[in-house]
Amino acid sequence: MIVACFVTGAVNARAAAGLQDQSARFDKWGIAFEYPKSWREYAADRTANMKEAFASQAKPFGLDLKEFAMIVGPNEELAVLITKIVRSKAFEPSEIVAERNQVYEDAKRAGDVTKINFVKITKIAGWPTVEEDVERSNGGRGRTHKMILGKTIFEISFIVSSARNFSKYEPAMGTVLATMTVVNKID
To answer: Going by DSSP bridges, is the β-strand pair 152-160/40-41 parallel, antiparallel, or unpaired?
Structure first.
């Protein structure tokens, strides 16, 4: 199945955020979004080991990591991880919420996560999305959005090395999400 996306929301969000000439564009694998020009995308060879590690972690759960990219903010204080994951059956938002709540409760007991701010179902570009926000024992904070398109998930995670500085990146995160579009999808 091929799905075309609506781009008017992205164009309006871009203009409202004042990004006309101040942004870079990510446009790969069927998704596109804009991000501040001061951020930079790492070359695939620099992230190959991370992709391999994530793929190994996903495989036992029947997940196939198809794509992986990383964008970093100034001073590498912010990392944006973008993945495309597929499996043989369609994903359900409620199933992902239950799984993520369990993962974070386990991580909290193990001392990796200090606070679960929320795990909830929202929408991005009209698609059901599971949004999760946690604080880690290393002092960092992460917010992940799993955009669900049937058997495919496009995941974008914003990881800030210091939870104290998380709020300074929230406007840019909002712009990324507001300009997100699904260009096409093949299931």
So the answer is: unpaired
Is-contact 116 134, C-beta < 8 A?
yes
Measured N-to-C along each axis, helices 166-178 and 8-16 cross at an angle, to the nearest 10 degrees, of: 140
**Domain span holding position 94:** 38-168
**Integer Cα distance of 165 and 71 in angstroms:** 17
Summarised one tens digit per residue, pLDDT across range 50-96 is: 999 999 999 988 999 999 999 999 889 999 999 999 999 999 999 99
What pLDDT shows up at residue 35? 96
Q: What angle do CA 94, 96, 98 make, to 5 degrees?
A: 70
Runs of H (alpha helix) within 44-151: 44-58, 93-110
Question: Of the candidates 185, 182, 179, which has an alpha carbon nearest to the alpha carbon of residue 25?
Answer: 179
Residues of the chain with pLDDT under 50: 1-19
Query: In this structure, which amino acid lies at residue 164?
Result: R
Q: How many domains does the chain have?
A: 1
Which tokens is 29 given? 């694998």
CA 72 to chain centre: 13
- Asked whether residue 16 is domain-assigned, the answer is no
SS3 50: helix
pLDDT at 184 (0 to 100): 72
